[in-house]
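Preliminary data (for renewal application), beta-D-glucopyranose complex.
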Amino acid sequence: MKISLEGQVAVVTGASSGIGKGTAKALADAGAAVVINYNSHAEPAQQLAEEIITAGGKAIAVKADVSSEIDVEQLFEKTLDAFGRLDILIANSGMQRDASILDMTLEDWNSVIQVNLTGQFLCARAAIRQFVAQGIDTSISRAAGKIIHMSSVHERIPWAGHANYAASKGGVDLLMRTLAQEVAHQRIRINSVAPGAISTAINEQATRGDQADKLLELIPYGRIGAVEDVANAIVWLASDASDYVVGASLFIDGGMSLYPEFRNNG
Ligand code: BGC
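Predicted structure:
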């Protein structure tokens, strides 16, 4: 199976680092023109765009806060100005503001919900409006458009000390499945990926030294995930190779969601 996204245009939110950055690269490698969205880190986003262009691909970096309606509208306008169409949205932007429930402030709660959940709603709505306006062009893809939401194993696994984050990802799951149900008849495919522990900046502490050993106890497959593990799955979900996959949440977690505490007979 050879996957090509040639002729397709992808927006990746939160693409200046981590899984977003790796995904933008992987989509460009597969032939897509990529819009690299960032909020505060312009330099790595611009650098990535230049890297892709130097390698013969197409990319632009665009600043937008995904929790702002105006910013999101402008992000999609700039995408159309630059590349004339939209085929793929990777709604990736996310953040953590960890605190025990005793200490969690309303600001901790709101900021995480606004980026992780409201941001995904705003981006998905803008993308779906564009997919519907464009319709299907089977010379480009069997679908009118594809959305991949960035969820987490914590859409299912409760996570003490992270009530805001876990609630946002639980919300992403039902947002994704509801939208998938609502627009599938328009040949818009909506799915999500639910990564476990991936070695990125968000996990820097948890993936080092003693902390890493503790984390590995939660991962039956015995290794911490790499950005490519997630990016490769996203490329597949964005391609016609997964054309019959609708409303799925793909866990990419080395088995973290399999209740590993029970592996020695409970
Ligand atoms: C979080 C990581 C965490 C992983 C597994 C992810 O969604 O962003 O910080 O290590 O879930 O717990």
